[in-house]
Design a protein that fits this description.
The strands form 3 sheets. A 5-stranded parallel sheet has the order 2-3-4-1-5, with helices on one face. It has a 3-stranded mixed sheet with strand order 7-8-9. It is built from 25 helices and 10 strands. Helices cover 50% and strands 9% of the residues. By secondary structure, it is α/β, with parallel strands linked by helices. It has 4 domains: 168 residues, P-loop containing nucleotide triphosphate hydrolases (Rossmann fold); 61 residues, Orthogonal Bundle (Helicase, Ruva Protein, domain 3), CATH 1.10.8.60; 97 residues, no CATH class; 148 residues, no CATH class. The protein is globular and about 75 Å long. The structure holds adenosine-5'-triphosphate (ATP), magnesium ion (MG) and zinc ion. Magnesium ion binds next to helix 3.
Length: 562
Amino acid sequence: MAYKALYRTYRPQTFEEVAGQEHIVKTLKNALATGKISHAYLFAGPRGTGKTTMAKLFAKALNCEEGIGHQCNKCRNCQAIMDGSHPDVLELDAASNNGVDEIRELIDKVKYGTILGKYKVYIIDEVHMLSVGAFNALLKTLEEPPEHVVFILATTEPHKILPTILSRCQRYDFNKVSEEDIKERIKTILLNEDVEYNEEAIKLIVNLADGGMRDALSILEKVLAYSGNTLKVDDILNIFSLESKEEKINLLNSIIAHNMSDVLDRLNKYITKGTDIKRLTEDLLVILKDVLIYNSSSNESYLETLNKEEAKALTYKISTDRVVKMIDILMNTVKDYKNVTAINPLFEITLIKLCSMDDEFSKKVISQPKVETKPVEEKVVAEEAKIPEPVKVEEPAPTIKEEVKVDLPIEDTKIVEDVIILKDAEGDEGYSITDNQMVNVMVVSKKEIKSELLEGWKNIKRLTIHPSLGKAATLLIDGRPLVASNKIVILEYQMPKLAEKVNLKDIQAELQTVLKQVFNRQMFVYAVSRTRSVDLQALYMNLLQIGKLPKAKDVILEFEGE
Ligand SMILES: Nc1ncnc2c1ncn2[C@@H]1O[C@H](COP(=O)(O)OP(=O)(O)OP(=O)(O)O)[C@@H](O)[C@H]1O
Ligand SMILES: [Mg+2]
Ligand SMILES: [Zn+2]
């Protein structure tokens, strides 16, 4: 039997099989149902998230003999599209054929009618790689495309595409596939392949895949080739040079106990084995974040990698202050990895730093069992922090695209009694919230509200078909509540573009109405990209560490329109 890679075998054959990307499936189906077919589409988004797949599915839906919108997978058209032999559905990989000639040749054929189907569909992958000449040739065709022709341009780097091309395309932004969706797809495949698995192994693969479905399936395949019919955590760790959770906890325990020789022994072992040190550093960060979260919330549902017992055990041994300092050191290390070639020595220095960190507090904690942990925020409020000067209300940035840089020198950051007023200058299309103001929101945010939103977020889906709220609901579904207070919710988006759309003034009222309908809460909606979210959390941590977070009672939030 000819061998076929998992990701090929399991390429979705109908819109329904596509994991995630609901907003795109919905819009394409709608276009097919109403016959409003555009001549040019741009599918933009990260690798392996379904762009080419979706293009082929759309080609099928245009040409299926059962009628437009169908994907019977049985008729001549469907079958030929599936095996890549359809004379009217042409795939061109701009990464390899970037010459003007290829495009010319392709475009020459545009004027002829179809051979087998109703539509000629040109799928141009990695379109940002086309040469300028080829782009111009393409542009000419896009200006006056024949009735029966549809171009689908796919790219992972939409910013590299000429504006003149962009303006002629209907653009669809693909998202990274969510952990839940990847998990579900992997489970379906494992069931089908008769493979035994446990949840932890799947979780590990999902983490490694980082939102790419093709990557997830390639990883899965590699592991199965190695271990046969059972998916085992140990095998995954081996293949990808990862350390087990147990090992990472042991390492942390040695660090906490200032056991330098044990820490260095472990390091030598990693180096000999060829452990992925960058990944290990990031994993240590995740564990410490869990410790911090557990320390301040004692709520197991917020934990990412530790279970309750593990979190409890670590929390017991180490003070919040020290965890925060360790996180800080490790975060700097992760940043520094980008600028050095010698990863191992940098990690060694980091371990030595962590190990020799002076911490009277944690020794005290070890010798006398902790009675109760105070929530982080309360602790800051209780401290006799000197009151920083009030900060002037800052003018919002001129456009939402220019997000304020986060790397503020800490000394300059004074935040207290800052008022958020989102009144922009006339003519601006979007809202913008500064970093200082975001920290304020984080300080007054309430975990219960965030949990409530997270839990009910899926219910927004039903409004995506609503005639006037559909657009707002579709946009919201792709976001994830990051923090929320009584008055505002901050959403996090993988795609910066989507965050920008949320912050447009025009859509605010609809966004609020959707949340009002689903959660019965009146809240201002603001969005940040994943990158900015990470930076903000780092800023928050830094301020927490130096005792400069504002007090919750001093923060007043006000919004335009109240
Ligand atoms: N959203 C998805 N749902 C289900 N499977 C998916 C999805 N995205 C990707 N896959 C799997 O990954 C394979 C590759 O996907 P596809 O070629 O569509 O990705 P792509 O976005 O075009 O990637 P690239 O940017 O690298 O071209 C598919 O055959 C399928 O098995
Ligand atoms: Mg592709
Ligand atoms: Zn068909």
